[in-house]
Amino acid sequence: MSFITSYCSISVDSCFVNGKLFLSDKNNAEKDLLKSLFKNLQIDYPKFYKMDALCKAAFVGTELMRKQLTSINYYRDDDIALIFSNKNSSADTDIKFHNSYTSEALPSPALFVYTLPNILMGEIAIRNQWYGENLFFIAPDFNADFFENYIRIMLEKNSKACLCGWVDVLENNVDAFLFFVEQSDSSKLNLPLTSKILANLYKEKNN
Amino acid sequence: MTVYITGIGIVSAIGLNVEENFNALKYHSSGIEPIKYLAINKEILAGEVKLSDEELISKYKIKTSIISRTTLLGIAAAREAWKNNEHSKDIRTGLISASSVGGMDRTEKYFKHKHERADADITMLSTHDTGNTTTMIATELGFSGYVNTLSTACSSSANSLMLGARMIEQNKLDRVLVGGTDALTAFTINGFNSLMIYDKEWCKPFDENRNGLNLGEGSAFLVLENEKSIHKTKNTPYCSLSGWANASDAYHQTASSPDGKGATSAMHQAIDKAKIFANDIDYVNAHVTGTKNNDSSESAALINVFGKNIPAFSSTKSFTGHTLAAAGAIEAVYSVLAIKHNVIFPNLNFHQEISETKLKPNDRFSIDQKINVVLSNSFGFGGNNSSLIFKR
Amino acid sequence: MESLKEDLKKQIINQLNLEDVKPSDINDDAPLFGDGLGLDSIDALELIVLLEKYHGIKITDPEKGKHIFVSINSMADYIVNSKK
Predict the structure, then answer these.
(1) Is 0.90 exceeded by the ipTM?
(2) Catalytic residue among B128, B203, B239, B322
């Protein structure tokens, strides 16, 4: 049996951690919730500002969960599998990079390095020095059955825990839902890993 | 469970089939030339497949014009690998194709048209995603079961082989056509140019004065089968795919770690998986592209794994250019050919050893030793590192 | 020269997304790389784009950047000398 021991959802104007509102920017004062979240975390990692929005969303989501759930930090460097998915791949940055070499005729290296969605997992791996399994799937929608199934396979093999997420960004729309799965309920959230519970947590976020 | 390789197909800058590729390697004949087919306002060297889209459509008798160059190249290589194999309900058969740019070539044309006139044909965008390429190859060859697309930058098609082998090992499939395809695009050329790792001259892998890569395009596919499948198809194996591994580098978005941590780990794990010793390896087809960073990192990793006894090694990217998602499969085909013909391929444009590592690649077409085991490396952006081992 | 340095600082902050840095935080002779602003290899490439975008200077050899991007002073000197 495995458990969802932490989860976090981020939209363009609000962020919830374990179902509780963490930060909201409904009045749109900051105009950049991801940046506000990062500042709120008070960590020294200037590389954050260089990331594209897709990586920023995954990065702050992961950091928020790490803050809530100390058990994440006690795994060995290849124990945690990263399993991510989204609909629009890196299209948000692809479009910006395309503009940089067509309209401006000055292709931007800082944009080019983010024209692959799996860089998101690279950023998390670099930040935490994690060397475990990592997979990024492109799918039309958040697929709870798929995640449940794949996490089971990972945990049966060499991984001890899974950091998972649906992180989709396109033209100012952010749809991120990250969750951490462990083999024991270290946080006592009482959320066994089932596709039904996962689907509900994801849906909850969109209401 | 042995994973046999029974079919190979390839299209690259040095030839439209296996035979042409082998001969070009034999005669030190690089396919990297001034760009001719891709519409781009840059004078650069690249490994283009020497046919226009129209010529490809006509040569391969393709019935639609709504098709990307990536897919055209993929169909050509997949057909050669698949040959006269037939589908049968007794053999569970799959297709895994890798690509990094997909139909980007047509998407670029669409935006150019759209910019110039209002009536640009939006159906041109229907070929954009990498899945479209796989679906079209599947339709062309009649695949209807397990069909999957992989995209992990420059290790993509090495990972197709790895996933295919694992599907066979786990008894989910009996036979699987695996490979990858990528066409040259302005997107990738501008990208590598912006990183300032695109050499204006011919790339010089493993050379002290290397100054970047040349991009290339192409495709390669291989047929993997288990014992049960071979019993029915009566195909003769070239060799087996006996080891594979993928490891993360956790260092930088695009650069490889100076100590080659991920690359070392991938090679070690692949060697363990193949149940061989490092010194059983007769030839290493390196990933090495000709960039400062990549070549140093892989050299360090080779030393980590082999110590002082590094087997003969070379980078064939000096022939094909770096074909991104197709590179792993193209070099897998070369690895199979190395075993089949007992040859080692030359590394072109090598003059001087890298001062820190002092490694000297094989710089001629060698025919004087038995090649039983080949290691092929493919390392990609995002720290995605894969190693494959082929065994007679 | 002073206004060029001031512009450069703004351009660098903008081009490299140096979020919490103000122009007054950057000393003219402080190193830009290493411990200074914590810039990396991609930032060096973005600085090459910056020179072309704002100053019309094209650099084709990234190795050259190592000598140009030492500090604000060295960048400003390079720009002034290039325009002579």
Answers:
(1) no
(2) B322
